[in-house]
């Protein structure tokens, strides 16, 4: 009588080892889980229906596909953020170069932040700043007009076409800075102080 039970137990273990090698993720077998003997170790150690193994393999494959797709989506978001940061860095460098060039333009007056200056070019190629606009010159404008720029308080230059947009941004920041508490004091996300 003992021989058939041993054979059955050996067949179950061999069968489970084959299943483990096929899937690589089955739980180890123990004859007394949690220190309790099971009623029928033969039935609990069987691999069961072969279709169960197929379903298990499909589930593992599906999990791998979802994990790969999830990682791809997250990496795509990071790649887009990197591109956005690269674009911002490029614009910052271009603006810094333009600001440096404009600070080296000839000017016979002391430039004061908050004022608009008009850039002209002489026939000799020299560029210079003036406080007289092309409208004020009228038809007697002596040189080519290149553009108008506002000198900001941080000594950066804002092109004429961007002055309104830049002033609106600065106004919003000023409002936030002059509020008694710019951001609410709470631990949870709250944008109440930013919307009013």
TrEMBL record:
InterPro entries the record matches: DUF2452
A Pfam family assignment: DUF2452
Domain of life: Eukaryota
Region (Disordered): 1-22
Compositionally biased region (Polar residues): 7-22
Keywords attached to this entry: Coiled coil
Coiled-coil stretches: 68-99
Protein name: Uncharacterized protein C1orf50 homolog
Organism: Trichechus manatus latirostris
UniProt lineage: Eukaryota, Metazoa, Chordata, Craniata, Vertebrata
């Amino acid at each position: 009588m003992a021989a058939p039970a041993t054979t059955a137990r050996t067949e179950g273990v061999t069968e489970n080892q084959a299943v483990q090698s096929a899937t690589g993720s089955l739980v180890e077998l123990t004859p007394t889980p949690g220190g309790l003997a099971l009623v029928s170790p033969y039935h609990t150690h069987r691999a069961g229906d072969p279709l169960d193994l197929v379903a298990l393999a499909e589930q593992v494959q599906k999990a791998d596909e979802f994990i790969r797709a999830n990682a791809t989506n997250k990496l795509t978001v990071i790649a887009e953020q990197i591109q956005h940061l690269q674009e911002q860095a490029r614009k910052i460098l271009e603006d810094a170069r333009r600001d440096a060039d404009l600070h080296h333009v000839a000017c016979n007056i002391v430039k004061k932040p908050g004022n608009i200056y008009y850039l002209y070019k002489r026939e000799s190629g020299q560029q210079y700043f003036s406080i007289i606009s092309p409208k004020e010159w009228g038809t007697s404008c002596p040189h080519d007009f290149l553009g108008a720029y506002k000198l900001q308080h941080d000594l950066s230059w804002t092109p004429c076409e961007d002055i309104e947009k830049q002033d609106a941004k600065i106004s919003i920041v000023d409002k936030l800075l002059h509020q008694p508490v710019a951001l609410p004091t709470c631990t949870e996300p709250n944008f109440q102080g930013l919307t009013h």
